[in-house]
Amino acid sequence: MRRGEVGATADNETNNPTNTLKDMTMNLSKWDPVRELRDVAERFNRALGHRYTTTENGDKEALTRADWSPSVDITEDDANYLIEVELPGVEKEGVKVAVENEVLTIRGERKFEREETGAKVHRVERSFGSFLRTFRVPEDADGEAVAASFKNGVLTVTLPKTEKAKPRQIEVQVD
Question: Cα–Cα distances in Å, from 106 out to 91, 96, 102, 122, 160?
Fold first, then answer.
């Protein structure tokens, strides 16, 4: 094509095979349609100003509204389930733990407190506002004996296992 014709480029880069190969290289990744749908839903919710908590198993708790979601570690030993929740900047009084209908609920709020020093703020990346995390209580846990402690910005919730769920040693007798 000549200059000035429709579809022509200034330096005829479309007809140059080296430019075409260089421009056509791309990264390949495995397509996950479920992840794609989740990403679209999250973008849509962000556009509307909503943020929702999610669970691994997709239960109805996934529709609970929250402004942010703290990180959680869940571990298990022979006697207990331990849930550790990172809550830096949250006061102990701002955290509520409850068990109802076999669901453990941890909720609270981190308040946005900024001193008016006249300084110009360039970026705020920390999350503020209410949070909510829900977890299904395992069948072998005693939901009535839940204990919680708060130290150095970490909430530790202990769910003891029921006596019948704890491993027992059976002594073998020799006759």
Answer: 14, 6, 13, 32, 17
